[in-house]
């Protein structure tokens, strides 16, 4: 077990090795992703209470629309706005695995909003702005996060201490990175404040991601009940490489368990 409040360099080394091994014997990327989010969800606790540190852990991967399984294609098409062009090569951020404290959070197919979102859609910048910024960092253009935040009349981003450069922690890194919002409450970078952040006591949101292959990225997002220090968040960067190594133990055309 690791404490999210005191996650050390030694802990990082140990966890990195554990994640690399989670690809062993897996048949699909979904299986690897599921092992990873469960491992992270079960492996971190709160220092004082010993309770789970994360309310929810999720794993996303980008895929062209043509490669989505049929239910996901229907999901994307059902949310398409007028004049939005969904082409076979439209890249979609796809929820590959999910694990959390509620049963419905442990099944990717029960997600209401995030099963698959075109990366160039304003929905991604609105609902997962941290990941949209990560896509931009990796050279994959998404809808402008700034435009979405500025269009929200309930918040004034200029008055917030958090900026895009704070969220993506290493602006010079274009292959793997950490994204981080230390104070989740009332942050415009964190969606569903009233339905999720406040009722479940989400204090910080931490994620990491990387490039899996040309034009394809993955991202892991962790919603923490404890406030995470910035230096602790930095220690998650090597986990991106370990996660990539785990995924690459599976043939890249074997994505979903049901295919």
Polypeptide structure, described:
This protein has 259 residues and is an alpha+beta fold. It has one domain: Beta-Lactamase. The protein is 32% helix and 20% strand. It contains ten helices and eight strands. α1 (9-21) packs parallel to α10 (237-247).
How would you write the strand order of the largest sheet?
A: 5-4-3-8-7-6
Question: What is the helix fraction of residues, given as a range?
Answer: 25-40%
Q: What's the SSE pattern? A: EHHEEHEEHHHHEHEEHH
Number of helices: 10
Q: Write the CATH architecture name.
A: 2-Layer Sandwich
Q: What number of domains?
A: 1
| Largest sheet properties | 6 strands, antiparallel
Mean pLDDT: 86
| Radius of gyration, CA atoms, in whole angstroms | 17 Å
Question: Can you tell me the overall shape?
Answer: globular
Structural class: alpha+beta
> Per DSSP, what share of the residues sits in E-state strands of 2 or more residues?
15-25%
Features:
Beta-Lactamase; alpha+beta; 6-stranded antiparallel beta sheet; two-stranded parallel sheet; 10 helices; 259 residues
Topology:
Elements: E1 2-3, H1 9-21, H2 29-43, E2 44-45, E3 54-64, H3 70-78, E4 91-100, E5 116-118, H4 122-127, H5 129-137, H6 145-151, H7 164-167, E6 176-181, H8 193-197, E7 204-213, E8 216-224, H9 230-234, H10 237-247
Parallel strand pairs: 1-2
Antiparallel strand pairs: 3-4, 3-8, 4-5, 6-7, 7-8
Helix pairs in contact: 1-10
